[in-house]
Structures are given as structure tokens and as C-alpha cells.
Amino acid sequence: MGAAARLMAHKKPNLPTKICEACGRPFAWRKKWARDWDQVKFCSDRCRQKR
User: Fold this and answer.
1) Residue range of the domain that includes 30
2) Cβ neighbours of residue 42 closer than 8 Å, sequence gap 6 or more
3) Residue 22 covered by a domain
4) Of 18, 31, 34, 48, whose CA is between 20 and 30 Å from 12?
5) Rounded to two decimals, what is the model's pTM?
């Protein structure tokens, strides 16, 4: 396991999570959602289209 992999292993569990409104599964915060995390309701485009 490289140094970068060990660093990521420690950061991932601390990310905020939500439950997807379409499928009910938990999903974690992503950097692309940083500006509008409060409005994110779905884990993927597929779930967003399915509603």
C-alpha cells in the first residue's frame, strides 16, 4: 500500500453522508457537490432521473 493510499484511507470515513431519496442507499460527499451539498438529494444521475 502506497503513501497516497494510506492517506485516503484515513480521510474517507470522515466525509458527511446522506441517504438517496430514490434508492435509499447512503452516499458520501463529493468535491463536485461542495457548493450545493444542501440541495443534493440523489446519489447518481440514474437515481435523479428515476425519482
Assistant:
1) 17-50
2) 20, 21, 22, 48, 51
3) yes
4) 48
5) 0.68
